[in-house]
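Continuing the batch. This is chain 6 of the set; chains 1 through 5 are on the previous pages. Same settings as before, nothing changed between runs. Recording input and output for traceability.
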Amino acid sequence: MYSLKHDVERCAACPTVDCLMKCQYIQMDRDRAREEMVKIGRGEDSILLEQCACCYGCEEYCPRGNHPCYLISDRRNERGILAASRPVTDQFILIGEPCGEYEVSNIEETALSFCSFEPLKAFGRGKIFEEVASSYVVGAEFMCPAVYLHFGKTSVIKERLPRVIERITNLGIKQLICLHDECYGSFTSIAPAFGMEVPFKPVHYLEYVHGRLQELKSEITPLNITVAYQRPCSSRLSQDKYHFVKDILDLIGVHLVDRQYQGENALCCGEPMRVAELEETADDVQRRNIADMLAHQAGYCIFNCPACQIALSEKVFKKGIIPLHITDLCRMALGETVEPGGAAQ
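Output for chain 6:
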């Protein structure tokens, strides 16, 4: 059985306890925060097991790489503490169950992964992806199980992630470009944290897109628009790739507003809280997030995560902000036609 690599003594000796001091949903003083994290590390009761909003933020905030997010989820699993109701939890586990429904297309050593999201295929085409677009995998058999951190079900991750890794490896894929950054986080953060080997090279699609835009630089027409970026919780698992958002926008002549809820301070789209039946929290998070975009006069809301886009597209559009996936924004700069708020044409 795979087990989490966590050192409780690191938490006990941590001078900053940033994992909780930077948390946007739980407030306590530093000594109490350290005490609660040590309790969890030792397998004892803690109020964090009940109060954690499962936003992945602490995974980025931790200065010592000690995986507080994974630890909280793992301890919830051990104690049978559900972050959402049992029917909702069971439904999500069933949705991701590998059931033989998948698509494997013209596999070469480099391939795209669309996770289980068929609609993501619309964002993996055009000039940017023309060299790799025909080689891809999609379907429940290739679904990254990171979402189960939100539910406190690391047992599902331990069961399914090794099987996903094995399927990809058996296809002969050497380099996997992940269009869902939660997939990238699963292979580069979750897997090593739980002692799982990943034989292929995961590539974050934002890094790939940035490289292709540099190659296509002569074909770019600067868009000269102002945007807000909705940073997804899954990006907390690949924080070293966040800079590519700004790098890409600079290449295509887009101004990214410097707003309050950006970078480390980014707010979740709110839906994980809604799933956990924290309706008031979800509404408040979405209200503050959109108000922040409006206050900085963003004309567009740019998305990375398909779940964030589903959650917020209609809401931002009603406020006069155009929702768009970041790859569609790049296609616009290359003169390709896209449909604002939806998939590329």
